[in-house]
Specification:
- The structure holds two protein chains of two kinds.
- Chain A has 19 helices and 18 strands.
- Chain A is α+β, with helices and mostly antiparallel strands.
- A nine-stranded mixed beta sheet of chain A has the order 2-1-4-7-6-5-8-9-3, with helices on one face.
- In chain A, helix 17 runs antiparallel to helix 18.
- The longest helix of chain A is centred in the N-terminal third of the chain and has 39 residues.
- Chain A starts with a helix and ends with a helix.
- Chain B is α/β, with parallel strands linked by helices.
- Chain B contains 15 helices and 32 strands.
- In chain B, the strands form eight sheets. Chain B has an eight-stranded mixed beta sheet with strand order 17-16-15-18-19-24-23-22. A five-stranded parallel beta sheet of chain B has the order 4-3-2-5-6, with helices on one face.
- Chain B starts with 7 loop residues before the first helix and ends in a 7-residue tail after the last helix.
- The chains are: A alpha+beta, B alpha/beta.
- Chains A and B meet through helix 15, helix 18 and helix 19 of A and strand 13, helix 6, strand 17, helix 11 and helix 13 of B.
């Protein structure tokens, strides 16, 4: 080994020793720092401090070690080894610049080093410093770790230490609030957490409150506006309660054995009622359809909608009405139809096979769809309008444009007397051209007309039927008039079941003598006979007599003989009509002038003034008006409010309120803060629609001031001049 | 200030003269006392003597510069909303000032008020106002100046509102107003229950009239709401008013016969609180109703209104009729119900009272003219009904029945219609007679309104008729003038001694009556807070609402603009020519310089050896 190598090793050893020494210096203090960090901040900070301190110690140690360089080595060797002759630096000087003497000395030094023991340049351990440091550090660590843990000095503990008891909390606050809203499953709404304690949710929603108070009360409950109370159960630090939202309500949180809650606002729960499903008919587009020729089936389509969901199947009720008149039979059956579409809107379509149902001409097919929604426990259902498919028995009696049966025309009832005359005269003109049979038949037809007319007029005299029943044709029997007529001619039995004493033999065709007898009785119908005065009755009777004669001749085939009677009958009828016009004219306002002189000309003894029956109206309920006044914003200071009478009024008149909850909320808000101007205004606004409107008052017009009056007076005097 | 009482220039003159005299005297004394050999030369003394007054005079002018003649100029005043473009370029002789309401404008001098601006710009003859207009503060300052007003456009919304300060509880009141820039829009009136009670479409000029009625006395806050053509709400302006109980008129009801019309009229009058004296003749001298009274001048003076039908009228004696006419001339209201054909004598009597009528022998069916209100508004007006007949808030309205009238044609002389049917024909008319009013009423079955369930209409038409015709009431009431707005001057008139105003915070401020207002007894008041104030003067009380500074800005803009336009249109204002233009002080620095030079030269001459003998 060369001298330089030996020296280098010695230097290295010295450096290591120095570094170790420095590290040992740092170690106790590092421990103290770590212990302190652990005590104050826990493990995390302690680790951090450890890492930082280790890094700092290493850096420090390296720095100390680096101070041992070649110069230090030279100095140290010179100081320690006399045999170096204070010329150690020659060992490290560049050889090229050395003088001869120096080279010689260098050689000697190298030899000495190589021959002698290896120089030990390691500094001594600074044992005392380490001992003292370790001792102090141990004490410090022990103190840090073993120092009794003291609760933090708060204002309250300081107060307590000087003998002041801490003041109790003056109010309770809600430190955590959660209102879990779980709507019923059928609504398909997700459960959610409300940030506030107000909620608006479907009816039947489960509500769960979780509240934390500071300080903790002894008991807590939710008090609803209708007096219901819901106890909150304590669960660790939290208070919980759950309820099902049945109807809208207001509630507040009430604590027991705790300072008042602030803010103690009123919370509102709104229950949204489930709407019944809606059904709409898509097809057919009208409620009454008619069977088209060749129709084999009937297409139906409905759309059902609901706020949460409609059932997937709907029930179609089919009613088949068969028969006509009073003989109608019904057959009912129900089938279920599957719907397509999404949950809230579904389409139900079905095609009815008419042949399978047995629909025949004259039948009606009536269908109605009913559908449920998905509400639990009880579903709501809706029914569509009834749809009718009609197979008309006789397509001719109906008009297709109208939904319903319409008679096409009304038959003519009877011919008038004038028409009979015209017909008879026309027949006379054609007499020569016609065969005898035909002539008599035509005459007889006119005679029938004459008879119908006679019976019509006879009704006015109370004669609703005579010997042969032959009522004026009605709309539903016009087709059978002729048949009935012929029948009547043959049968000739009185259908009159009144059983008149003298009617039995009357009315026989051609018995002219019996006419007066026949007309001698009337039925005294209130609407008919008795309304006619004797004059009119006489005229009418004469007309009927003439008609009778005319009828007789006509039916015997002698229109020329019948004509004079017919003319007379016409004249009488005209007179009757004119007479009727006189007596039945509306009485207008043109009254004859009042003869004032005859007024109150009778005996007035004993007539005295009567007491006045008019009494004053009931005074309206003064509660609301009084409250209106006490809420007046113009009053300074604000007037007290009579809540008790107001609440009584509200209980009694709850049905008159559109939103009773709003009223309750407004009252509660005002009661909580009587100085709140906006709360007063809100309550007043709710109150106004309830204030009854009095009978309209009469304002007085302004007379102006004295100068104005003088001016007007002067103006009038000017005008009169 | 004592200094201002001195005539400062005169004092200066005295001081300077004294100084000149003393200096000259000293100069002469030194010359005289000096040895003759050492005396200065005469020209030097003369020059020094001359220099003294010269210095004094120049100093005087430096202190009091001579005034330059003023020149007539135009002052351009920027007010609220003025823009640099609207101010325009400065022409010759134009100066620009901005009042505090004006927005920041570059290179425009800001002044606290117009009077200050006029003082700073003497010689102003013409004032051109640019922007919104002059606030009340500045309106007096422009007197004597020619005023031109270049107005800004009004803001969109409500710019004019005419409301009664007080309304009668139970009777309709009218609100007039004007909306700007809302063509095709709607004006609505919202009642204190926040329900719409009236709605009209806005015509092209934006003017509208709405009506509502307060149900009970006390203050109530209505709201005027404006909507544009798309039904969007443009503005909501609060309309606070005080409702007072009516002083019901005293009514004498004379009927020639009992009947439903009389019965329901009595019913309504009794419910409405009218003091009613009824006499229904049932013939033969027998009467129903209240205790009979004699119809004379004395008794009629106790009534405000006489309602009588033509039968009762015909039955009056000559003396009674003369008493009625006298009372009518003295202010009584007379309403004559025509229920039957009039006899020629009655027509002549009507003619004597100024009514020329024709026809009348028949009756006709009429429909009342109804303002176009929708059902919601009418339901909100009718209210909840009475205890015996409650009305649901969404109950359907009964139809208005057809009524009957006498087909009497009233010739429109000086008569004024009282009630019209839907075709515009007159159902009633009134005219002034003396101090009173007389009305003809041809509707014969207004009671069928009550039977049909529209007693509100029955009450309304009778209330309107009686209010129009009845005796006028002299009101001794407190009046407020000026815009009721925070920090704006309000004049309260008709005050007695010890009047005071109570502010919303409860503080009370006494009012000092300005003697200059004479018999009107007015006092000024500046409200500091917005809200309800209460004016109390003796027994009279008046509540009034003061708007906040920022509330209903359009109303304020409209008011300012109108007032300024009136000022600009007032010919009395532009009488400026006669007054002399005041001068303004000239620059001082030339005089100071002259004084410095003169003093320096004098000083140099005094020091110099020049002109000395020794």
């Amino acid at each position: 080994m060369s001298a330089v190598t030996i020296l280098q090793r010695a230097l290295q050893q010295a450096r290591q020793r120095r570094a170790m020494d420095a590290a040992l210096h740092c170690l106790p203090w590092m421990l103290v720092a770590v212990a302190l960090a652990w005590r104050l901040g826990g493990t995390g900070p302690a680790l951090l401090v450890f890492v930082v301190a280790t890094a700092a110690s290493v850096a420090f140690a390296l720095n100390r070690a680096r101070a041992f360089d070649t110069r230090w080595l030279v100095r140290e060797l010179d100081a320690r080894r006399a045999d170096m002759d204070d010329s150690t630096d020659l060992l490290f000087a560049p050889t090229a610049q050395l003088t001869g003497l120096e080279r010689l000395q260098l050689g000697r030094l190298q030899q000495r080093i190589e021959s002698g023991p290896a120089p030990d340049l390691r500094p001594r351990w600074s044992a005392r410093a380490h001992t003292v440091g370790a001792g102090i550090a141990a004490l410090a660590v022990a103190a840090i770790l073993l120092w009794p843990a003291r609760p933090g000095d708060t204002f309250d503990t300081v107060l307590a230490s000087v003998g002041v008891t801490p003041a109790a909390a003056t109010r309770t606050t809600i430190v955590e609030q959660r209102l879990q809203v779980s709507p019923p499953g059928y609504t398909r709404q997700p459960a959610r957490d409300e940030a506030t304690l107000d909620a608006k949710a479907p009816q039947g929603t489960r509500l769960q409150w979780t509240l934390r108070f500071a300080p903790q009360p002894k008991a807590a409950e939710l008090v609803f506006h209708d007096g219901r109370r819901l106890q909150l159960a304590r669960d660790g630090g939290a208070w919980r309660a759950s309820d099902v939202l049945a109807r809208s309500a207001l509630y507040r949180i009430v604590l027991q054995d705790a300072p008042p809650l602030q803010p103690s606002t009123l919370h509102r729960l709104d229950a949204i009622a489930d709407r019944a499903p809606q059904l709409r008919v898509l097809e057919p587009d009208r409620s009454l359809s008619l069977v088209t020729p060749g129709q084999r089936n009937w297409a139906l389509a409905f759309e059902g909608s609901d706020d949460y969901g409609v059932a997937s199947t709907a029930t179609l009720r089919i009613t088949l009405a068969q028969g006509s008149g009073e003989n109608i039979t019904f057959r009912e059956q129900s089938i279920s139809i599957g719907g397509s579409g999404n949950a809230t809107v579904k389409r139900y379509a079905h095609r009815l096979d008419l042949a399978a149902l047995g629909l025949a001409a004259g039948d009606d097919l009536i269908v109605q769809l009913s559908v449920n929604d998905n509400r639990t426990p009880t579903a709501q259902s809706a029914r569509s309008a009834s749809l009718i498919l009609r197979w008309p028995s006789d397509l001719g009696t109906e008009t297709t444009g109208l939904e319903g049966m319409v008679k096409k025309v009304l038959p003519a009832y009877f011919r008038s007397q004038r028409q009979i005359i015209i017909d008879a005269e026309a027949l006379l003109k054609e007499k020569r051209k016609l065969e005898a049979d035909r002539y008599v038949k035509r005459s007889d037809e006119i005679g029938v007309d004459q008879r119908i007319l006679r019976m019509r007029y006879g009704q006015f005299l109370g004669e609703e039927a005579e010997g042969e029943p032959k009522p004026p044709p009605t709309s539903d029997a016009d087709a059978t008039v002729d048949a009935a007529h012929a029948e009547g001619e043959v049968a000739a039995t009185p259908a009159d079941d009144h059983g008149h004493a003298d009617a039995g033999g009357a009315g026989k065709f051609g018995e002219e003598g019996a006419v007066l007898e026949e007309y001698g009785h009337t039925h005294d119908h209130a609407e008919a006979a008795t309304l006619l005065d004797p004059e009119t009755r006489k005229l009418l009777k004469a007309a009927l007599d003439e008609m009778w004669q005319s009828e007789g001749h006509l039916r015997q085939g002698h229109p020329e003989l019948a004509l004079p009677y017919a003319y007379r009958a016409l004249r009488f009828i005209k007179q009757v009509q004119q007479a009727t016009r006189i007596y039945l004219a509306r009485v207008g306002p043109e009254l004859p002038p009042i003869d004032e002189s005859r007024r109150m000309g009778g005996d007035r003894a004993g007539i005295a003034r009567r007491g006045d029956a008019l009494v004053a109206a009931d005074v309206a309920d003064p509660t609301l008006a009084a409250l209106w006044h006490s809420l007046d914003a113009a009053q300074v200071p604000a007037a007290p409010i009579d809540f008790i009478s107001l609440e009584r009024w509200l209980r009694e008149h709850e049905s008159r309120l559109t939103d009773p909850l709003a009223f309750v909320a407004a009252i509660e808000a005002l009661r909580a803060d009587p100085d709140c101007a906006s709360c007063r205004a809100d309550l007043r606004a709710l109150l106004w629609p309830l204030l009854p409107r009095q009978a309209t008052a009469v304002p007085r017009r302004d007379a102006g001031d004295a100068a104005g009056r003088r001016y007007l007076d002067a103006l009038r005097q000017e005008q009169t001049k | 200030m004592i200094a201002s009482s001195f005539n400062q220039p005169l004092l200066l003159v005295a001081l300077l003269t004294t100084a000149v005299v003393v200096a000259s005297a000293r100069l002469l004394y030194r010359q005289w006392r000096a040895d003759p050999a050492q005396r200065s030369r005469a020209w030097r003394v003369a020059a020094l003597l001359l220099a003294q007054p010269v210095c004094a005079i120049v100093l005087y002018f430096a202190l009091v510069p001579p005034s330059l003649p003023g020149e007539a100029g135009t002052l351009v005043v920027a007010t609220a909303g003025a823009t640099p473009a609207s101010i325009g370029a400065g022409r010759g002789g134009e100066a620009f000032v901005a009042l505090p309401e004006a927005p920041p404008l570059a290179d425009v001098e800001r002044v606290p008020d117009l009077a200050t601006a006029l003082r700073r710009h003497p010689g102003t003859r013409r004032v051109r106002i640019v922007g919104g207009g002059l606030e009340a503060r500045d309106r007096d300052a422009v007197h004597g100046l020619a005023l031109a007003f270049t107005a800004n456009d009004l803001p969109r919304g409500l710019v004019e509102l005419d409301t009664p300060r007080q309304a009668v509880a139970g009777a309709d009141f009218l609100v007039g107003g004007r909306a700007h820039g809302l063509r095709g829009g709607f004006a609505e009136l919202i009642d204190p229950g926040r329900r719409r009670v009236d709605r009209v479409a806005l015509p092209a000029d934006g003017r509208f009239v709405l009506s509502a009625s307060p149900r009970v006395s006390g203050t109530a806050s209505f709201v005027v709401r404006l909507r544009d053509a798309k039904q969007a709400i443009v503005e909501e302006v609060e309309l606070p008013l005080q409702a007072i109980a009516a002083t019901p008129p005293r009514v004498l009801l004379l009927a020639g016969a009992p009947g439903p019309e009389v019965k329901y009229l009595r019913r309504w009058a009794r419910d409405a609180g009218l003091s009613l004296q009824t006499q229904v003749s049932v013939g033969g001298g027998t009467q129903l109703g209240d205790a009979p009274i004699a119809i004379s001048a004395g008794t009629l003076g106790r009534f405000d209104l006489v309602i009588l039908d033509e039968r009762a009228w015909s039955a009056l004696g000559d003396g009674q009729r003369a008493a009625l006419t006298d009372a009518l001339n003295n202010g009584l209201g007379v309403l004559l119900r025509v229920t039957a054909a009039l006899s020629p004598a009655e027509r002549r009597r009507l003619q004597a009272l100024g009514f020329v009528v024709a026809a009348g022998s028949d009756s006709a069916t009429v429909r009342l003219a109804m303002p176009p209100r929708d059902e919601d508004a009418i339901r909100a007006r009718i209210g909840p009904g009475s205890r015996d007949a409650p009305r649901l808030h969404d109950a359907a309205l009964p139809d208005i029945p057809n009524l009957t009238r006498r087909d009497l044609r009233i010739q429109p002389g000086d008569a004024v219609p009282l009630l019209r049917d839907d075709a515009g024909a007159w159902l009633g008319a009134w005219r002034a007679q003396g101090r009173g009013r007389i009305a003809l009423w041809t509707l014969t079955d207004s009671y069928s309104l009550v039977l049909a369930g529209r007693d509100d209409l029955h009450g309304e038409i009778w209330s309107k008729a009686l209010a129009t015709v009845g005796r006028a009431q002299a009101r001794n009431e407190l009046l407020l003038e000026g815009e009721l707005r925070q920090h704006q001057r309000i004049a309260a008139c008709g005050l007695g001694n010890g009047a005071s105003v109570t502010a919303p915070d409860g503080t009370s401020a006494p009012l000092l009556i300005d003697p200059a207002t004479g018999s009107r007894n007015c006092a000024a008041f500046w409200p500091r807070a917005a809200g309800w104030h209460r004016l109390k003067s003796g027994e009279h009380l008046l509540s009034f609402h003061v708007r906040g500074t920022g509330a209903a800005a359009g109303l304020h803009a409209g008011e300012v603009r109108d007032a300024t336009s009136r000022l600009a249109a007032d010919p009395a204002i532009s009488l400026a020519a006669a007054t002399a233009v005041p001068g303004h002080p000239g620059a001082r620095w030339p005089w100071w310089l002259a004084w410095l030079l003169a003093s320096g030269a004098t000083w140099w001459l005094e020091r110099a050896r020049l002109g000395r003998r020794a």
